[in-house]
Write a structure and sequence with these properties.
- By secondary structure, this protein is an alpha/beta fold.
- The chain has a single domain, classed as Ureohydrolase domain (Arginase, Chain A, 3-Layer(aba) Sandwich), CATH 3.40.800.
- Strands 2-1-3-8-7-4-5-6 form an eight-stranded parallel beta sheet, sandwiched between helices.
Length: 311
């Protein structure tokens, strides 16, 4: 089925420690994301890059926190852009940029879903749960905070934008897969919530299909909108080196493609983040090309459709 897709660049790197994610949106474009999706029969409009809003009055009691004003400026701009894009496109695709961009994208799509009386769900494909508050983060890297923020946890008042009830995703509507690097404070916080967390041991034991199928059944039963947030570090670093937070033992090529193919089959995905691509750390575009290939699987490319690579 042909869909109207909107590409939105989010050249955010204020939430990370290593520079380079600012180049992510252009790397996705250079790797042919738009052309690949059009070849699958979709109408694709590239809306260009979002402009960060000026913010200069945010502070945190945690001295480790850095890039707060800039990150909040990106979040405010992206929340508005995400909300507007959902009104004109079937699926907006946000090209990152570090994962702090989800501080804006997820509340924006959730606000739109609420307007249509649909509950918002989030599939978080990441090595990290990103469940820190501003007080608990030791690194001060704000790409480690989005899930705690958009699920309505404490610790963001007067720093991040005030989160309306309609823009909040309940913890029970969040599913995490691929988790394998969790700080102690995050582990404790996750224990107290009802987030569905599947770490790599769980996926080793059960595979990716069973837990994903269960989650998708819940989304469908609720008539929900589904936002997918795909971090490069969800993948095994050997196949996706272009990320500043590599963690060994990630998803394999086939596991990742199976997830994308199942998401396509479900017909439930309403928005997508592609994040943490750092072209400065890539090998001749290898990771960018893989991310585009995964996106193609999400939008209908099958194994039999995939072109054979030259040897």
């Amino acid at each position: 089925m042909s869909q109207k897709l909107a590409l939105i660049g989010a050249p955010v790197q204020s939430g990370a420690s290593q520079p380079g994610c600012v180049m992510g949106p252009e790397a996705f474009r250079t790797a042919g994301l738009a052309e690949t999706l059009r070849a699958l029969g979709h109408h694709v409009e590239d809306l260009g890059n979002v402009d960060r809003r000026p913010v200069d009055d945010r502070t945190s009691c945690n001295p480790a926190v850095h890039g707060l004003n800039e990150t909040v400026g990106w979040a405010m701009a992206l929340e508005n852009q995400a909300y507007e894009a959902c009104q004109s496109a079937d699926v907006p695709i946000f090209l990152g940029g570090d994962h702090s961009l989800s501080i804006g994208t997820v509340p924006g799509v959730a606000r739109h879903a609420a307007n249509g009386n649909r509950p918002q769900f989030v599939l978080w494909l990441d090595a990290h749960p990103d469940f820190h508050s501003l007080a608990s983060t030791q690194s001060g890297n704000l790409h480690g905070t989005p899930v705690a923020y958009f699920s309505g946890q404490d610790g963001f008042t007067d720093a991040y934008p005030e989160l309306a009830a309609t823009a909040t995703v309940p913890p029970q509507n969040i599913c995490m897969m691929g988790i394998r690097s969790v700080d102690p404070s995050e582990k404790q916080a996750l224990k107290e919530k009802s987030i569905d967390v599947h770490d790599m041991r769980s996926l080793d034991e059960r595979g990716v299909a069973a837990p994903l199928r269960e989650f998708l059944a819940r989304v469908e039963a609720a008539g929900g909108a589904l936002h997918v947030s795909l971090d490069v570090d969800f993948l095994e670093p050997a196949i996706a080196p272009a990320v500043g937070t590599t963690v060994p033992g990630g998803a394999t090529f086939r596991e990742a493609h199976l997830i994308m193919e199942m998401l396509h089959d479900s017909g439930l995905v309403t928005s997508l983040d592609l994040v943490e691509l750092n072209p400065f750390l890539d090998e001749r575009g290898r990771t960018a090309n893989l991310m585009v290939d995964l996106c193609a699987s999400l939008f209908g490319r099958t194994v039999l459709d995939r072109p054979t690579q030259s040897h």
